[in-house]
Amino acid sequence: MASNQRNRKTYIIVIFANIFSVLSFMVSIKHRELEYLLVLPLPKEVEQHVMYFKNVFKDTYDFPNALITYPHLTLLKFMQFENYEGAIINKLIQLACYVSPFHVILNGFRFFERVFYIDVATGSVILDVVYNQRSSLLPLLRAGKNRYHFTRNAHVTIARGLLQLQCLEISRSWKIPSYQAAFIASQMLLLKRTTAYSPYKPVNTIRFIGNKSYPKQGDLF
């Protein structure tokens, strides 16, 4: 009889220990730090063009790193705990109410340091989406060096991390060819990943509604 009671107590302790372990794991997941990326997605046709350029880099210059990222136009990159995700999405939805769909014009190849990219001729319009309203997002972002980066110079990256010799060769080969494209940006896409080497996964698509006028400073808080 005493043996059965001890076994029953041991069984109950094990059950509670397992429940506690599962709950602790769930809490730890919610409080893990993730890398987020807010982008303007490109239309399928433009995306295919950029992927063609990336494949040219892979084959011509033996640079497979060009294929690491899928074609996009970055607005914001940041690190944050996952439990802030809902509040950040709500703030982005709020900001999207002040943005109407707008034209994006891609115009020509450019170099910046060791990055080869397609320039955006309508960059000033893109700044209004997030960069010029960044003060309302900052309270939701983690402070600290390299914790977040708002894009000031809009561009579509083809390859980054190029060597100096590769830059010289590419600048000669791509001096004459050019590229132009235009599309309507009607939404932004929030992505996330667990590590720097894992693929991004979609979190939320936020459409530009444009049914409100930009408020005065402080009204967005």
SSE arrangement:
Elements: H1 2-30, E1 33-40, H2 44-60, E2 73-81, H3 85-96, E3 102-112, E4 115-120, H4 123-127, E5 148-150, E6 155-160, H5 164-173, E7 180-185, E8 187-193, E9 201-207
Keyphrases for this structure?
5 helices; four-stranded antiparallel beta sheet; alpha+beta; five-stranded antiparallel beta sheet; 221 residues; Cyclic Phosphodiesterase, Chain: A; 33% helix
Number of helices: 5
Radius of gyration, whole Å: 23 Å
Shape: globular
- What does the average pLDDT come to? 82
Low-confidence stretches: 16-29
Order of helices and strands: HEHEHEEHEEHEEE
3D architecture notes:
There is one protein chain. The protein has 5 helices and 9 strands; from the N terminus they run αβαβαββαββαβββ. With 221 residues, the chain is of the alpha+beta class. The longest helix is centred in the first third of the chain and has 29 residues, at 2-30. Strand 3 (102-112) and strand 4 form a beta hairpin. It folds into 2 domains: 1-30; 33-207, Cyclic phosphodiesterase (Cyclic Phosphodiesterase, Chain: A), CATH 3.90.1140.10. The termini are far apart. The strands form 2 sheets. A 5-stranded antiparallel sheet has the order 5-2-1-8-9, with helices on one face. A 4-stranded antiparallel sheet has the order 6-4-3-7.
